[in-house]
Design goal:
The structure is a homodimer of 226-residue chains. With 226 residues, the first copy, chain A, is α+β, with helices and mostly antiparallel strands. Chain A contains 8 helices and 8 strands, in the order αααββαααββαβββαβ. A 6-stranded antiparallel β-sheet of chain A has the order 3-8-4-5-6-7. A two-stranded antiparallel sheet of chain A has the order 1-2. In chain A, helix 2 packs across helix 3. The first copy, chain A, is globular and about 55 Å long. The first copy, chain A, binds a DNA duplex (30 and 30 nucleotides) through helix 3.
DNA sequence: CTTCCGGTTTAGCCTAGCCTAATTCACCGT
DNA sequence: ACGGTGAATTAGGCTAGGCTAAACCGGAAG
C-alpha cells in the first residue's frame, strides 16, 4: 500500500507543516520534491482516498493522524540510518543524506527497532535533529532557537541545522562550523540580515554569516566552561 | 539505468547459470521471480538492448560480462547485509533474506565498501555462501559437495545451504541442523533418495532427511576433534 | 464590481513493469 | 517428411507515477 513515492510525499508534507502551520500548498511540495505541481495534485487525490491527507482543491493539504504516523516512521528510519552511517560506518555528516533517503524506505519494524537498540537509542541524528520514538512522538528539544534570532554579545553553541542538504553542510564545513561549535555574536547587519561572529577556538578571528546560513542553525546558550 | 527490477532479473539469471551451465530458459527465470514467462520475455529484450544479456528468441539467455558484474555486485550487497543483520543486529539466519532483498538495491560503492570494512571483510554470509569481492570475483569455496552425494559412513560438517529461503532454514532449525553441525551418514534410501543421519552432539539419536533437504546442504569432511 | 494574474487543477500523454490470451516455434516420434 | 505438443513469444491492456499544455479559480487592485 505504502510506496516509496507516497512515503516521500508524506514526509515532505510533514516537514512543510512544521514551518507553515496549516494548509501546505501543492507548489511547495512540488518544489521540495523536485516535481511538477500537476503531479502533486494527482498524488494528493491518491493520498486523500487512502486517508493519509485532508485535501480540498485550492485549499492546500494537511496530514491525517494516520498520514502523520507514516511520515514520522519514515523520518525515524531516515535519522536512524544517518546516525548509523556517521557513527558506525564513519561517513561524514555531509555524505549521508542521499543514502539515508534510500535506506529509509525499507519498512520493517524489527529492523528499525534493532538498529535503534544497536545505536543505543540515540536522541538526535548527526545534524542535531531529534529522532522520533517507535510510537512516533518526538522528545521535543526545548530552549533552542535560530541563530538569526540571536543578539549581539551572545555566546551560542550550535546544536542543530535546519537544512541537511549536503551542499549546505559542506558550506558549513568550509566556514569551520559544525555541531558543538561555539560562536560569539559580534555584529548584526540589518541591511541583508547577515551577521558577524567569532568562532570560539577557531582559527579565523571573525566569520561572516549570511541570513541563509543563520536561519538554518539552531543554538543554545553556551555554558562558559563546558 | 539499473532499476530494482532489472537487478532482480540479473541476479536470478546469475544464480540459474550456476546450475544449468548455458542458456537459461525464460520459464525458469519466471518461476524463480514469481512472474509470468511473458513478462520475462519482455524484460529480456530490455536487458539485451542495454547489453546485459545475450539473448536470442527460443534459445535462452546468458549474462554478458557487464551483466554478470552488475549481478555480482547485487549478490555482494545482499550477502554483506545478511552478515550485518545476523552478526551485528542479532537477527536469526532465517529472518534476514527478505530484508537483505530490499537493502541490496541501495547502490553505493562507498556504502558497500564501508560496510564490508566494518564487518571485517567477511568471507561468507550467515548461510555459508561466499561473498564476492569488490571486483566481483569469488573466493571459490573448494572441496565442498552436496550432502546428497555423500556415502554411508561419512562424517560431514555442514558448511552451507543452497537455498536460503526462510522456510527452508526454519525447517533446518526444527531438525536441529545449522552451519557447523556435524552429521554421520547412516543409511541411504534409493527409493526416494532420502537419507538417515546421526547428528553428532544432537539430542535426537537419528534424523531422516528428504532429498529436498540433502540436495541443498553443502558439506566438507569433518575433522575428528575440531 | 470587475479585471487580472499567479497558483492550481484538469486533460491527455508517456514509460516501466506486469498480466492474460492468442499465436508461433522447435523438437520429438513416427 | 509431418504432426503434435509444450514452451516461448507476441499482442493488447492495466496501474503507478510522472510530464506538458490548457483551462480554471480566487484574491488583490483598480
Amino acid at each position: 500500500m505504502l510506496t516509496e513515492s507516497t512515503e516521500n510525499y508524506l514526509k515532505a508534507i510533514l516537514q512543510l507543516e512544521a514551518d507553515k502551520a496549516d494548509g501546505v500548498s501543492t507548489s511547495s511540495i512540488a518544489e521540495r520534491l523536485g516535481a511538477q505541481p500537476a503531479s502533486v495534485t494527482g498524488m494528493m487525490h491518491k493520498l486523500k482516498e487512502r486517508g493519509w491527507v485532508k485535501y480540498e482543491r485550492y485549499k492546500g493539504v494537511d496530514l491525517t493522524e494516520t498520514g502523520r504516523r507514516h511520515a514520522m516512521e519514515t523520518v525515524r528510519r531516515h535519522r536512524l540510518w544517518e546516525t548509523f552511517l556517521v557513527g558506525t560506518l564513519g561517513f561524514a555528516w555531509d555524505e549521508v543524506h542521499d543514502l539515508a533517503e534510500q535506506l529509509e524506505h525499507v519498512r520493517s519494524t524489527d529492523l528499525t527497532d534493532q538498529l535503534d537498540a544497536f545505536l543505543g537509542h540515540p536522541q538526535t541524528d548527526p545534524h542535531g535533529d531529534p529522532i522520533p520514538n517507535a510510537d512516533g512522538t518526538f522528545r521535543t528539544s526545548v530552549g533552542r532557537a535560530l541563530l538569526s534570532d540571536a543578539q549581539v554579545g551572545i555566546c551560542a553553541k550550535i546544536v542543530g541545522v535546519g537544512d541537511s542538504q549536503d551542499d549546505f553542510l559542506r558550506h558549513l564545513n568550509s566556514l569551520g562550523l559544525g555541531l558543538g561549535t561555539v560562536v560569539e555574536v559580534k555584529e548584526l547587519f540589518p541591511f541583508d540580515r547577515s551577521m558577524a561572529v567569532h568562532i570560539v577556538g577557531g582559527v579565523e578571528a571573525r566569520c561572516h554569516l549570511s541570513s541563509r546560513v543563520t536561519q538554518n542553525l539552531w543554538w543554545v546558550e553556551a555554558v562558559p566552561d563546558a
